[in-house]
Design a protein that fits this description.
By secondary structure, this protein is α+β, with helices and mostly antiparallel strands. Helices cover about 35% and strands about 25% of the residues.
C-alpha cells in the first residue's frame, strides 16, 4: 500500500439518472482519477515486478498489454465501487474522425453522454535492451523516415480524442529510470514549446496536478479542431505508475 498517494475526494454516486446527467466533465474525470490512483496506491510493486519478470522470459514480451490488462482486471474484478458506479473500461480498437487508432484504456459511463476518457499507456525505463531515451521518445514524439508518431503526438494530430478537449497518458516505470517525470517534461518542452502541432500553451505544464500527487502532471496544448479548423485548448493528464523507484 502506497500511503503517500492521495486520492481525489469523491462523493457517493447518486442513484438519480437526472443528477448523473448533470455531472460535468470535471466530475466524471475526478472519479476516473480516483480509481486509477486507487489501483496504483493498492497494487503491490512486487506483484507487478514478478508479472514483468515472467513476461520478459517469453520470446516476445508484451509488457504494455500485460499491464493494461492487469489494470482492467483489477478495476472490474477487485474494485467493487467501479462496477457499482456503472463505469465501463475497454481495451478495444477505436476508429474516430476517419483515423484508425488503438486506444489503450477507454473509460465510459452510460450517463456521460457522448464522452469518454482515453489513456495511452507507454513503458518507461530501460528494459530488455530498450534505452530510456527511446521509450521517452515513444511516449512523447518520434520521427523516422517513414512516419511521425508518439503517444502524445497521436492526441495532437486528432488520432485520439478528436471530439474532446482532454485525454490521458499513463507511464509504466518497470525498468531503470531515475527522475522519469523530469526527463519526460524536458522532452515535452523540447518537442512542443514551439511546435506547429500541439504547441504548449498557457501554463504549459502543471506539476502535481491531480490531488497534489507527485506522480501526476498536466500539459496544456493548442490543437486544431477538425470540424471548425479553430485552434482550441487541449488538456492532457499524465499519471506515472512507478513500480521501481521508492517515493
Amino acid at each position: 500500500m502506497k500511503e503517500y498517494i492521495k486520492l481525489p475526494k469523491t462523493s457517493v454516486m447518486s442513484d438519480s439518472i437526472m443528477q448523473l446527467q448533470k455531472f460535468d466533465d470535471a466530475e466524471w474525470k475526478n472519479y476516473i482519477f480516483f480509481h486509477l490512483l486507487q489501483y496504483y496506491k493498492t497494487v503491490d510493486n512486487k506483484e507487478i515486478l514478478a508479472l514483468i519478470k515472467n513476461e520478459l522470459s517469453k520470446p516476445i514480451s508484451k509488457i504494455e498489454t500485460k499491464l493494461k490488462k492487469h489494470i482492467r482486471n483489477w478495476l472490474v474484478r477487485e474494485n467493487v465501487d467501479f462496477k457499482e458506479q456503472g463505469f465501463i473500461i475497454n481495451l478495444e480498437p477505436s476508429a474516430e474522425c476517419n483515423k484508425e487508432g488503438l486506444l489503450d484504456l477507454k473509460f465510459q459511463h452510460s450517463y456521460w453522454q457522448d464522452k469518454y476518457f482515453s489513456f495511452e499507456a507507454k513503458n518507461l525505463g530501460e528494459i530488455k535492451g530498450r534505452k530510456q531515451s527511446t521509450l521517452i521518445n515513444e511516449y512523447v514524439y518520434v520521427k523516422t523516415k517513414h512516419k511521425e508518431d508518439g503517444g502524445m503526438y497521436r492526441y495532437m494530430t486528432n488520432k485520439y480524442a478528436c471530439e474532446l478537449n482532454f485525454g490521458g497518458m499513463i507511464g509504466f516505470v518497470v525498468g531503470e529510470n531515475k527522475m522519469p517525470i523530469k526527463k519526460l517534461t524536458n522532452k515535452i518542452k523540447t518537442v512542443f514549446n514551439n511546435s506547429k502541432v500541439g504547441q504548449l500553451s498557457g501554463e504549459k505544464i502543471i506539476y502535481n496536478s491531480i490531488e497534489n500527487n507527485k506522480n501526476t502532471f498536466e500539459t496544456i496544448h493548442n490543437r486544431k479542431n477538425l470540424f471548425s479548423n479553430n485552434i482550441e485548448k487541449f488538456y492532457l493528464y499524465h499519471i506515472i505508475f512507478d513500480f521501481i523507484n521508492e517515493k
